[in-house]
């Protein structure tokens, strides 16, 4: 480093933490979202809850970004709509998955996205991942196996398998965002609004079909104060607050730093499941949880190192 470089202001670490803390809070609320979704959702009300959750926030996003929405061209609308269809699949898999497994398992299994995405990108670009990354991936997979077998070696639950499919769908979503050229130059707020709008349309169509569970109106009528609190937590904190904090933080710090802080989400999911829901993964399950966290952290560092 040049000796002529200006020294950092004395309050620079303090300013960095003022940015980091809201991002860390997003990771905390995302970790708690699995428990909140599990608390207000049954297999009969998945579609209804999804419609209600995003119908609450969509008007706010449209109002906040209406000028930029009008600036999108036809190709950007189409690209964002395709991403929205994938996003709908992610939320369907995650929500049905969390109904059929524990909040701890859900949060930790979905964290495999951080391993699956670089592996899929390497396959698409025909590049070989580093040995360190492959070792980290193997460690994470071993952790998931132990986690889902904490009560004895049996077939993984339906919820565990759905969460694994959700992690794969998240990987597809990330790759699609990077490969659909039209959306690369799109405003992030407008892109998110169109995606959520497309996803809500999918949920509404499915919810209107006969035999798909309770209607949003029937589910809302049956909600008590606790269910409404859970729904507002998912809508306001896990969606609106999370999105705007990410936009704010990326402009004040590096995307890598934001990603690192958000990567603590599975840790908070496990903490919420164990502390609030009484999840008891057992010694084997706890070992698996540690391996998942260690493997995803190691894999993220290995992928960042390869990128640089």
Primary descriptors:
308 residues; mainly alpha; globular; disordered N terminus
Number of DSSP-assigned strands: 0
For the largest beta-sheet, the strand count, sense and barrel status come to: none
Q: Return Rg in Å.
A: 20 Å
β-strand percent reads under 5%
Spans with pLDDT under 50 lasting ≥5 residues? 1-8
**Estimated helix fraction:** over 70%
Structural class: mainly alpha
Output mean pLDDT: 85
How many structural domains can be distinguished in the coordinates? 1
Distance between the termini: 18 Å
Shape: globular
Number of helices: 15
Order of helices and strands: HHHHHHHHHHHHHHH
Would you give an account of this structure?
It is a single chain. This protein is an all-alpha fold. The protein has one domain. Helices cover 79% and strands 0% of the residues. The longest helix is centred in the N-terminal third of the chain and has 29 residues, at 12-40. The two termini are 18 Å apart.
Brief sketch in words of this structure:
By secondary structure, the chain is mainly alpha-helical. The protein has helices at 12-40, 46-64, 66-70, 74-99, 103-110, 113-125, 131-148, 158-179, 181-184, 188-208, 216-222, 225-250, 255-262, 265-276, 282-307.
């Amino acid at each position: 480093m040049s000796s002529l470089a200006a020294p950092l202001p004395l309050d620079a670490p303090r300013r960095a933490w003022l940015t980091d803390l809201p991002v860390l809070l997003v990771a905390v609320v995302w970790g708690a979202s699995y428990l909140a979704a599990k608390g207000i959702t049954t297999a009969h009300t998945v579609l209804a809850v999804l419609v209600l959750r995003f119908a609450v926030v969509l008007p706010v996003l449209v109002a906040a970004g209406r000028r930029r929405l009008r600036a999108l061209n036809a190709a950007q609308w189409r690209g964002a709509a395709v991403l929205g269809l994938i996003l709908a699949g992610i939320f369907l898999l995650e929500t049905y998955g969390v109904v059929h497994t524990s909040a701890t398992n859900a949060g930790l299994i979905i964290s495999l996205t951080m391993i699956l995405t670089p592996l899929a990108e390497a396959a698409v670009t025909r590049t070989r991942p580093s040995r360190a990354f492959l070792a980290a991936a193997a460690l994470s997979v071993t952790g998931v196996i132990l986690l889902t077998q904490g009560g004895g070696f049996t077939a993984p639950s339906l919820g565990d398998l759905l969460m694994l499919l959700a992690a794969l769908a998240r990987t597809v979503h990330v790759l699609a965002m990077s490969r659909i050229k039209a959306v690369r130059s799109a405003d992030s707020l407008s892109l998110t609004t169109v995606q959520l709008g497309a996803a809500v349309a999918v949920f509404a169509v499915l919810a209107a079909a006969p035999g798909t569970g309770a209607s949003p109106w029937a589910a809302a009528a049956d909600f008590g104060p606790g269910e409404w609190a859970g729904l507002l937590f998912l809508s306001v904190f896990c969606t609106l607050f999370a999105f705007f904090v990410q936009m704010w933080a990326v402009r004040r710090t590096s995307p890598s730093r934001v990603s690192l802080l958000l990567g603590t989400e599975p840790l908070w999911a496990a903490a919420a499941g164990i502390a609030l829901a009484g999840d008891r993964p057992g010694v084997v399950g706890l070992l698996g949880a540690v391996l998942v966290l260690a493997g995803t952290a190691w894999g993220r560092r290995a992928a960042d190192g390869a990128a640089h």
